[in-house]
Amino acid sequence: MQSIQANNYPVHFNEIGYEKLNQHLKENKYSNLFIIADTNTNEHCLPKFLPLLETDLTIEIIEFEAGEINKNIETCIEIWNVLTELGADRKTLIINIGGGVVTDLGGFVASTFKRGVDFIHIPTTLLSMVDASVGGKNGVDLGNLKNQIGVINTPKMVLIDTRYLETVPQNEMRSGLAEMLKHGLIFDKAYWEYFLDLKAIDFDHLDALIHRSVEIKNIIVMQDPTEQNIRKSLNFGHTLGHAIESYFLENESKTTLLHGEAIAVGMILESYISLHKKLITQEEYNEIKTTLKSIYDDVVFEENDIDPILELLIHDKKNEYGRIQFALIEGIGQIKINQSVENELILNAFQDYKS
């Protein structure tokens, strides 16, 4: 499968990725190699990965506990201390192998340790393959607030090997699918329509679908690497979705949502807002809502949940001058950014979701 040239780095797929990785190790005089993994990828993915490495470098593995709850500055401090104790220097290479938590956090650790060392991402979940590892965003959560601390800094390469998906549970696969559906809704109507009947999809074509999703995100990011303009389109479903995800993460009475589960709700809500701003038709909204609800279980919202979720919107990173900014779809396959939305319309969107 053809590699994709992103902004200052390549994205390689499957076998060729290991060839390029080993070539990179030979051509660059690194002092040592650190692999950052969580408990899941250390157990399930490293046994597949390590035999494919061709290097005489000293390899150290740094493991942290899996889960979004550990994507914080405290985990970073622990890893920075381990790097220091084990002799990491400016010529160290860090490989982050895992899902979005690992690539986000590992990229942030590498970007800030000694003012920045080289790093490579090897995403192992569908979500991290099509979203988290592509685009140069690295960071951690601040309490329950998603990705509040971070930098935009690109890896030396991204290696996507879809064989790692054999270790991923079905609910995690659905979580990643949400980002692929988003890419269709904001950029490629034909790609969206491919997913309208999941039973008819030939998942032998999964590699090609992942490749197209990475391609779509890369096209957008290449035009606007620092998210001043069109890259904001990738936030469709995320303004409300992130607030919902954060609320369920901090609330002990709620079952924590996977990222894609929250974003699926966000896309339904923000499609409703798009409808009532006359950006999409009723037919398009019905198609989006029906499709997403057929894939993802309904999330139950009590009346006293909504106000705290709306309060979390003020922390959204897209806000400017105190105003909440939405990226809304303008017909399936197109996007309109920097849209202000009144609270009443957001409340109506929740009511419609529950109906």
UniProtKB/TrEMBL annotation:
- BP terms from Gene Ontology: aromatic amino acid family biosynthetic process; chorismate biosynthetic process
Q: Which residues form the 3-dehydroquinate synthase C-terminal domain?
A: 176-319
Q: What is this protein called?
A: 3-dehydroquinate synthase
Q: Does the keyword Metal-binding apply?
A: yes
Superkingdom per UniProt: Bacteria
What Gene Ontology molecular function terms does this protein carry? Answer: 3-dehydroquinate synthase activity; metal ion binding; nucleotide binding
Tell me, what does this protein do in biology? Catalyzes the conversion of 3-deoxy-D-arabino-heptulosonate 7-phosphate (DAHP) to dehydroquinate (DHQ).
Q: Which organism is it from?
A: Flavobacterium aquariorum
Q: Which CDD domains match?
A: DHQS
Q: Which gene encodes it?
A: aroB
Transmembrane domains' residue ranges: none
Name the keywords, alphabetized: Cobalt, Lyase, Metal-binding, NAD, Nucleotide-binding, Zinc
Matching entries from Gene3D superfamilies are given as: 3.40.50.1970, Dehydroquinate synthase-like - alpha domain (1.20.1090.10)
Q: Does the keyword Chloroplast apply?
A: no
Task: Please provide an example of a Pfam family that matches this protein in its UniProt record.
Answer: DHQ_synthase
User: Which Enzyme Commission number(s) are on file for it?
Assistant: 4.2.3.4
Q: Name one GO cellular component term.
A: cytoplasm
